[in-house]
Amino acid sequence: MAEEGSKKLFSHSDVSGHASRKDCWIAIHGKVYDVTKFLEDHPGGEDVLLHASASGDATEAFEDVGHSTSAISMMNSYLIGSIKDYVPPSASKTATIGGNDAPPNFRGMPRKKGPPAPNTFLDFLLPLFVLGLAFAAWYYLTFIAKS
Q1: Residues 59, 86: contact at Cβ < 8 Å?
Q2: pTM value?
């Protein structure tokens, strides 16, 4: 652990060393948060945070869940420092991550695909065609082929 001005710098091993119910830190986008007081209030349960803490970097898990804007703004109150020599996973994501002390801004991040396209006429017609074909085959084999 080192200090640069008023900002504390931590290593990944420093963060993963704080992975208990009494002392829990997580790292998201190179920022270190002390979430010990938030464990019981976390909607996903405390085990999610404890597991993320033990892994050393919770960035991917945090992004996969899709947190609300109020949850993201709440992160500042738990910020205690940043990861020493943090390198973002890709240069393209660097521009979309917030400033030095701000939590990540997810408005610029790629989103998951939306709902599927509305049903088309073929989505309705194809199953009816298969059902009609099956009925015709049954009728032919039951009544016509016996004669």
Answers
A1: no
A2: 0.56
